[in-house]
Fold these 2 entries.
Entry 1:
Amino acid sequence: MNPLLSKPRIFRFAPSPNGRLHLGHALSAFLNHDKAREKGGRFLLRIEDIDTTRCTPEFETAIYEDLAWLGLAWENPVRRQSDHLDLYRDALDRLFERGLVYPALLSRGEIKAAVARFEAEGKQWPRDPDGTPHYPGTERTLSSAGRREILDSGRPHALRLDMGNAIAQLDAGLSWQETGAGPQGETGLIAADPAAWGDVVLSRSDAPSSYHLAVTVDDALQGVTDVVRGRDLFHATAVHRLLQHLLGLPEPGYHHHRLIPGADGRKLSKSNGDTGIVAFREAGRSPGDIRAMVL
Ligand code: GLU
């Protein structure tokens, strides 16, 4: 094909400004940046700041500083999710109109108590791939008028996907192309299992969109062709594929990369001060040292 006619591949690094970037982020950013360069593609940076209880402008500024210090250049303007809440709301409305979303009233504490009561009888309550118990689905059977009534009542609620109903909309199983590997080394064409997640949250009273919804809408809107991210999000891809199908959005390719463990062997978190990029910088390490450490 004439390369001038083929569309460029689009990669994105999508951190949340809820802490300083660590070595795992450096790996993700380098991989996205380098693959984009290698393929003559584009490298985008997206700020995933819908969780206003944890994200701050100071951490956002620090992301720009850390990435620039690492020697990475991204396109401007940077997309910031909190600037586009109306778009996630539109997507949610479309799913609601089709009866695929219901308002869920149980708080985290109430869900925990319901699960504990159930498991006290020696039975096993289903859990998602991250270990979180599935929502009991108390309001799933409400009519659309009943659902609307809760919305209009002003009672605090989350909006959840009716997973059973959503899966019933599929005429074939969902899959995705994986060029990296999952936690068990899965690669190639992967069968997606969104049911494993139960009725996922699509928005909460204090967060107008969930990560799943915003990431799916934004990847499509930005024309992302290649999602390169940590293996901790491998199983979440099943939910993203389902939402893409329901919302009529294109399917990117996926590459899940290894996670960098901390000194204690556990997954790095943003509170791991000693593996923060800034800590290495202050200790006199160079961007080349960071590259050598993670790649
Ligand atoms: N914002 C997510 C994070 O900080 C990454 C989302 C993604 O790459 O799909 O872990």
Entry 2:
Amino acid sequence: MAMSELQQELEQLYQEIMAHDYAYHVKDAPTISDAQYDSLVQRVLAIEAEHPEWIKPESPSQRVGAAPLTMFETVTHAVPMLSLNNGFNDGDIVAFNRRASDRLRAQHLLMAGEEIEYLAELKFDGLAINLRYEKGRLIQGTTRGDGMQGEDVTENIRTIRSIPLMLTGDEIPEVLEVRGEVLMHKADFHKLNEAQEKLGIKPFVNPRNAAAGSLRQLDSKVTRSRHLRFYAYGWGQLESTVALAQTQSGMLERLRDFGFAISPERAVVKGVAGLLDFYQGIEAKRAALPFDIDGIVYKVNRLALQEALGFVSRAPRFALAHKFPAEEMQTLLEGIDIQVGRTGALTPVARLKPVFVGGVTVTNATLHNEDEIRRKDIRIGDTVIVRRAGDVIPEVLAPVLDLRPEDAQPFTMVQACPVCHSSIERLPGEAVWRCTGGLFCRAQRVQSLIHAASRKALDIEGLGDKLAELLVEKEMVKSLADLYRLTAASVASLERMGPKSAQNLMDAIEKSKGVKLANFIYALGIRHVGETTARDLATHFGSITALAQASREELQAVEDVGPAIAESIQHFFAEEHNQQVIHELAELGLNPVYELRSGVAATGTADAASASSPNQAVLGKTFVLTGALSHWTRDEAAELLRQAGAKVTSSVSKKTDYVVAGADAGSKLRRAEELGVTVLDEDALKALLGL
Ligand code: IVH
């Protein structure tokens, strides 16, 4: 009997939706809008409601989540799911390659002097899953379990849109078990945690735990709401009349053609040098990847050689996991100190038993604020999980409750500033307590001085943390103006300060009198006024006097200055003490003005008008610079752009005209691509600037 037109339409919708799922979840390149996609699914649901007898297992309606289970069934794997041996340093990799090479040479499968060819790919930090397809149709999904037996999570697996319910392409095997990792992208993890927090539910510690918690849900509707992903890296049982490929890399491509996402970063390389090269390349961009990885996996590429090498106990001889230094480690929380910042913010800092994490030894980690400590239920004496990823400052993620001693002490916030004993306050809507001592507080004076001397402010070389502390402690510097009253003799009298270094400091201080207005404004440490805002204020007002006298409206006319920043600026200049210091600084020779092109007035000039040599190609355009440039530093390139009349901001939005991406550009480049913002490389930028 011929299919009715309606039934044909349904079949076509299945195909169409499958293709969109693939484009969206596997290729990360959607071809229709979410709304259009939803309307296709709605159409399917409507037809199926009329004709439930037509519903096929591959229908998108079958991803919606089934009735909650009471427990997962145990399933014995058709082919055991083994594990990988680990390597931690170059020596381990050399040894791995030597063992495999020796073995293959002994079997005359590798010639003397010949290097083994490997596939190198990411080691995903998620959960291993086995997906069983019979005649191309997904029939079961199981967790790894103990490697021999796992749990049947089919209902949950079906809700993951990057897992095809039906394989696509040619030569579909009779039986194919696809193995890979279920994980959560970092962006989805942060969104999930924000939502959890709003609901007052404990956040997940990391994307891996979030993925595990989401997959091991008895209610598959919960899994569905969690946006999990699947990346394929291998296979289990395979019954096929044709050989799918001769190599690991060829098999991965087959899996991709069947409809799976595979490691976006992978390479076929030769010998140890090739492996280590790949490792280093990925290590450098680890933080910018959309998901967590915990290392690189190397596999001998030729399947025949894999077979010849075989397995030893429960791991293959043909593969190795080259682990990165762990980004998360456990250690003892010995105490909680309170640090006073430049603006008086009191930050609880964990005092930790030293622990090697993310490649360095960590002894302190931020705990953010008292609410965070309470929410995470962190107590002194706990064993805690510490995370340090990339250049991000280390933080305490969570306590390990199983290891909590009976005498673990809950944290109590101090009643007064631990440094100056002034009262502390916590403004409504703010998470932090602040010392009210202002510049009476020694800690705030020290931090303000460190900030003022920093590179992007007055750039006083040699004035670091230790010296700032000494100068404040000896009461030689009570305000920024005092810095310019120091003498070589008084500085030389300080501990560990010889006449030479004292003179160097004096020279650096003298040099700072030539500071640019933007850096000077930044140096003042006005709350909410960062580098970019300082620069905008400098170009807009042209002098400190003009800035100090600006009305709230005038301030808010500057781009990116909202009510909070405007108020903070006015508050700063209303303070008598600050006026006094600025006055004294001017008398001491620090009164920078914005350098304008001759003939351009200093009042209310917009960025474009104040450009020193405007260039029509970039005039008034907004740029974001990211990644490492080779001809210039990013600051230099930004300065060139500004001189040509462009605006340079730090985050990518729809208003951004161009993103200039250097080497190892990460999230900003991705964001630009998402938003369809034009991306330039350095040469294109040079061309645009006519250089
Ligand atoms: S291959 C015979 N490739 O690492 C073992 N495993 O200890 C086959 N993993 O639990 C594993 N990324 O889930 C392989 N690209 C990758 C992987 C990977 C992550 C996990 C896997 C397993 C563990 C191995």
